[in-house]
Amino acid sequence: MNVAVVRFPGSNCDLDVVAALQATEGIKPKLVWHEKSNLRGFDALVLPGGFSFGDYLRAGAIAARSPSIAEIKRLAEEGVPVLGICNGFQILVEAGLLPGSLLRNSGLRFVCKWVTLRVENNTTPFTHRSERGELLRIPIAHNEGRIFLPEDDLKALKKAGRIVFRYTDEMGEVSASGNPNGSQESIAGICNEDRNVLGMMPHPERAVNPVLNSEGRSDGMAIFSSLAGLTRRGN
Amino acid sequence: MAEIEQTILGLTPEEIKYARRFLGREPNEVEWAIIAAEWSEHCSYKSSKKLLKTLPTTGKNVLVGPGYDAGVLDVGGGYVVSMHIESHNHPSAVDPYGGAATGIGGVLRDILSIGTRPIALVDVLRFGNIDEDAHSQWLFRNVIRGIADYGNCVGVPTVAGEVEFDGSFKRNCLVDVACIGVGRREDLVLAEAEDPGDIVVIAGGSTGRDGIRGAAFASKNLAKNAESERSSVQVPDPFMKKLLLDSIIEALETGEIKGMKDLGGGGLSSALSEIASKGGTGIEIELKRLNLREPDLTPTEAMISESQERMVLVLEEENSNKTLEILRKYDVPFGIVGKVTADGLITVKNGGTVVASLPARFLADPPLITRHEDNLLPRRTTHVEPRAPSDLSRVLLDLLSSPNIASRRWIYEQYDHEVGVRTVLKPGQADSSVLKLPNGKFLAVKADGNSKITSLDPYSGAAGCAAEACRNVVAVGAEPMALVDHLQFGDPGDPEVYRSFSQAVKGIGDYCRGINIPIVGGKVSFYNQDEEAQKPIKPSPVALVTGLIQDQKHITSPALKNEGDELFVLGRTRLELGGSEYHYRILGRSDGNAPRVNPESDRRINSLVLRLIRAGLATSVHDCSKGGIGLAIAEMCILGRVGAIADLKDAPRDVMSPAGLLFSETHGRFVVSVRPGHAIAVERILTEAEVPFARVGTSGGRVLAISSGRKSIVNLSVSEMARAWESSIPRALGERV
After folding, report:
1. CATH code at B388-406+556-737
2. Cα B137 to Cα B124: distance, rounded to the nearest angstrom
3. What DSSP designation does B405 have?
4. ipTM confidence
5. Is the pLDDT of residue B102 over 60?
């Protein structure tokens, strides 16, 4: 499977994502510059984290106007899996591929820590290898990750099963102490209607090499190996 | 008029005389400005150079030592590690957010300019007491936020650090940032312009009016009305830095870059004269080709502006296309501003007219200043230790919640310490942070300083920073490899200050020679003074040490891992409570005997600890420093969420009270835990090595109970210790915990 990692000026997790994809059996990653407007031939796309265009104006706002975005939208409509991580998620929201907004963390500070995620929907191209309710240990690192949606939109999102990950405490319970940024209903990741576009604030690429986890876990691999295990486009 | 100007520029009458005599003429206004920038203390080390030359700087792994932008070590497999430390003290005292941010920018460029990729930042900070005054809180919050916003944006993880609180830093906080880089040996680039005819390119941010005379600003005491110096602080642009970083790293692969240097203190004046003088050449530039932010910038301003995010590159004209193409791809502005010449002169033209022409060597090699030191010896009096409070459990709890000891989570959670997927031991987990290297080895990094001890005894205090940093690196399983230091003092014209500086240099030099660690770089920052109190800061040398771990299995942390492990104390405790946290926080004293160092015995004990780790005998290791053995054992319990029972009756020591035994900060000591089945083997090894040690207890339960013989001295639950340790800094900042 050929996966494009779209690099914007200011992306800083691009090489980390490439390394994680390289470690995933069956995936061949390629770094592409954001000005590339033809991404045909790629079976999936990843928008990595970082501070695209310095997050000037608003996180992800300028990158969402970049030449590759129209192409990403077109491929997404065709059902090509698209994963936005952290700043990549912010870009997908700014580009209108995912609903809602990502507001400043409730603590008003950047937060970098390992959190527990619960898989709420395992029917996406990125989670089909996980069980529903499975707990993943993955780090976050962001300043603007508090998901907010108007009430009706949130209801619709929940009804359609488009909440893919929630933050929980270590026991797997949704709780204030397990919610690192004040996100609505502890939401950590959501998908589009067709479920082929996923945005998540946590960084699965940082949880692939077990040497980087104090318990020797590599839970981020669940997401990349799901992608690699797709039999056909869009699952 | 001229006389007044020159006084403002900070040159001494002798320097002015020397410049006139050397040149045989009166320099013009632009030339005086260039001379003053390059001869500032900040750029020239004119007060410190003589002493710094005494430091040990060579070793079998050292590829590049002091005098360049960063020290470089060979770590095997074709890879190198670079390291450097910088401070931004004065800017941070005026504008903590911008000052701290641009401090990072500077040290990142140093690592980059030697041809290596920055992979980790380490911040070493000193503030007033945040639990007492609002100004210190304001500085603290904004310095941390400045480091976070800049470091996070450029994608270099902040993996380690050290922070000390002391009243002497209330108005002059110290903000040091160190950076570690990794690269291929064949990609190293030196800051030299060797070949006449090569082109000189300035790439990155535009040149503007910010940071004008920043080096001069750093080379005098902060004015009482320091607010008026705000224009001396540079403006940070981390996004431009990120583009510059990515483009230069990509350009390094072309092999086209022949020489490179960052534009830091002293701006163009300093960068050009240094690369020309190192290469034995000259450089001619045309200011009209510079990318200016303000079109009406005068030649003087352009030459001394310290606008951020700029690099100077030296390229062969015929072999420069790939590099320039990469700069264009990243939208990094650049200008081909001039060329390398054979005449040895820095020639500055403005629209074709020569506005300055000075020999590069003359600029780079100013007359040194002979400073005077008083001959007072450190006060080592017959100190009588006052009675300790009767409740030592309470004392231990108070020490755990002292901002100098408490958990740094509030700080490091604001830093992206994971980006780059290299951080194996993360901030808060161990005595040093550990990074994965591309050659399969691991790098331990730690910085330490202790102004309270150094103010009592500058020699032992400075040596002690090195000793502690080495121990911290050893505790995670690494062999210490190299050190960079940062020496921060008051006004060098004050004989007492200069004596403490000279003692500190001697102390750190003697120690590093004694344990055979090269000092591969460093920085000196003078004129750190509280102008309102009319007092210099406590002398603050800091040392950053890197060490290598060959095998992942050897990476060790201080958290107790199991119930029933045997606890060993290694090293002899002496009554050295001077400068200790116990004295500062509990007794409010600033006298007593400062801990002395012994490189010989440290070397033995360090290698013994490494031997235990490599043999797989140590389940956890923690060094004893701030707070002594008492704090060391408490922290091992908190991190492992398990209790311990210890009897210190037999711990090797001089005669002293239980408080002395618990809280003395004697160097050269570790606490090590081992599986019960290994205890006999460990005892044998320690006995054979003739290292003082004692088996003091076992891990287990939910309580830490320390006794001395039959007398119980501490009894605390792990959860109440953890609460005190974890909530202290948020509480000091008035946050709900």
Report:
1. 3.90.650.10
2. 16
3. T
4. 0.94
5. yes
